[in-house]
Amino acid sequence: MNDQPDSAEFDQPVTRRAGEPEASQFVSEVTARVMPSLIANVTAELTLVRHAGHDLPVVINHGDCGGSYVAAPHSAYVLYPKAELGLVDLGWLRVPASILIGLADRLFRTLRINHAVQIDNWLLSTNLHGEWTGAGIADLRADLARRYPNHFLVVRSVDPWSCPELLKNLRADGWLLLPSRQIWVTDDVERDWASRNSVKNDRRKLLQSGLIVEDVERLSDADAARIAQLYAMLYVHKYSALNPQYTPRWMQMAVATGLFHIRVARERDGQILAAAGIVARGGIATNPMLGYDTSRPQADGLYRIASWLVGDFARSHRLRVNGSAGAGHFKQQRGARSEIEYTAFHAGHLPFWRRAPLAWVALALEHLVIPVMKRRML
Asked: Where is this region: Disordered (predicted)?
């Protein structure tokens, strides 16, 4: 996370619809650089596919294991849950969960699950699919299967709340849906979020802190480095090194291309203590980048302040919120409710021994893992 950006690379503002990232700009900026200079634990390729009037970023992994789950299905379904075992209280379920994860590890390595072509993947924890509904998905799927005959075809971040038409079209085209995680969504921010006492207390904490809220239009080198540091403090060092390890260069690129709208809370001397990177597509906001100074006392409420920045942005822009996974109790107290998110796989072009076991995995996840997620608000 020590990569220092060259701000001159991102000096030109990008013309785009307000709040909506442009896929062609995003892919162009990413492919002009070595991927690990943007995300330290991703080595996959990125390309652009134009289909049915939509520009879609496509991530291609040729089998590399151990990197971030944003580009590696094995990390999402094996390595990340394995790391979570040490953070979540599962009680007596810990032993059977560990055994199941070990079996999944061997199975997914045998299937070569990381040979994957991931459609509309923005290298984020949550991909918002916006206006792409999967219309004509059969043609796109057939074309990609011809180009990548040894790869699974994958669509991450599919759920019935944010992209019901995409989910419907994937099902109709025979894609297999594997539950991936429980996410927390807010249907009406004004009604469900702003009226909560916990949210009012979060705003009060911000006012008492004396921090200055700023919407950042262009990141300086110093601010980019600080925001990357705050993100790493929370998501990489506190939670998991399998989260995407965004560098300062990524932060500047994300702002320049319109991928991130960044809000920060600064001290009077300019030091950033909390930051949120917000993505907005199709009337929905999500925050794949959140960070705060974890060395400060918990009583400072910096996580609450960072989260408030996201809700306040969504409220002012009249957006629904996909709050991603984790911190279920915290988000529920602030008006969110749960949905199950899926990753869609298509393997019809692959040998039987590589495609058939996925159906068994999907069945096991649906009946064994989802009830635990819901019961323990994972």
From this structure: 1-23
